[in-house]
Structure formats: structure tokens, C-alpha cells
Design a protein that fits this description.
Layout lengths: L6 H16 L3 H5 L2 E9 L9 H13 L3 E15 L2 E13 L4 E15 L2 E11 L9
Length: 137
């Protein structure tokens, strides 16, 4: 029988991803995603079909001086089911693009699957938060 991850286990996995992102720690961030994870970002023209594609994009960003200044997760919801979970939240992010600061108010969904004793993210979807003003730097 496929196990259902515990609520706290899902939150811990999501927190690990958010914390690593906030630290611009690529290796720790990508460790939370399965190699076959897919990514849909409103800031990118196409879906990224695996972790390697996102890692390549991340490397381009960081080579240009991009790094995260802050990332705050609020309005969190965990929906667990046998074999995985869906985590959704609102996220306020400030980044240095290498050309100056930028800020975003977005909502995000991360889909997790049970992987042995752990859970890994298999899909991330990021979209603008309707009606939200970007936080000021």
C-alpha cells in the first residue's frame, strides 16, 4: 500500500525548498526535486520539462548576478493523498537581478510524491498573485 505523507512531513519538505531558494543555494534547492520534476513559471515562455532544464536556467541567472534577497511563504495549504501531496502558498520574493532589485507577489503550487522514506517535489507551478502589489524593497 502506498503511504500518505504526514502534514508536517510535507511542510518540512516545502520549507526546505523555500529556505534553500531564499539562500540562493542551488544544490540544496534542487535536492528537493526529483530529476523528472517539471516547472511552469509565468516569467518563462515555456514549461521546463525536467530538473536539469531548470538547473541550467538557474545557472544562467546566477552567472548574471541574480540572487534572492528574501522569500516569505504565507497562506499555506497541505493536501495529502496516498502517494503524495499538494502544497500551495503565497510567496513574496525580493531578488537582485544583477541589474537592480525586483520584487514579486506570487502564488505557488508544489506537487510532491512519496519516494521511499522521503518525499520529493515532482512539479512546481508559479503564477502572479492577482490584485497584489509587489512588496517594496
Amino acid at each position: 500500500m502506498t503511504r500518505e505523507p504526514a502534514h508536517d512531513e510535507v511542510l518540512a519538505a516545502a520549507d526546505a525548498i523555500v529556505d534553500a531558494f531564499a539562500a540562493t543555494d542551488g544544490p540544496r534547492y534542487f535536492a528537493g526535486f526529483a530529476p523528472d520534476a517539471s516547472f511552469m513559471f509565468h516569467t518563462e515562455p515555456a514549461r521546463l520539462d525536467d530538473r536539469a532544464a531548470y538547473e541550467a536556467l538557474w545557472a544562467e541567472w546566477t552567472a548574471g548576478g541574480w540572487h534572492v534577497l528574501s522569500c516569505e511563504s504565507t497562506n499555506r495549504l497541505v493536501q495529502a493523498y496516498p502517494g503524495g501531496a499538494v502544497f500551495s502558498h503565497d510567496v513574496a520574493t525580493r531578488v537582485d537581478t544583477g541589474d537592480g532589485e525586483d520584487a514579486y507577489r506570487e502564488r505557488e503550487t508544489i506537487v510532491f510524491r512519496v519516494d521511499g522514506d522521503a518525499i520529493l517535489a515532482v512539479h512546481e507551478h508559479l503564477s502572479p498573485l492577482p490584485g497584489a502589489e509587489a512588496p517594496t524593497a
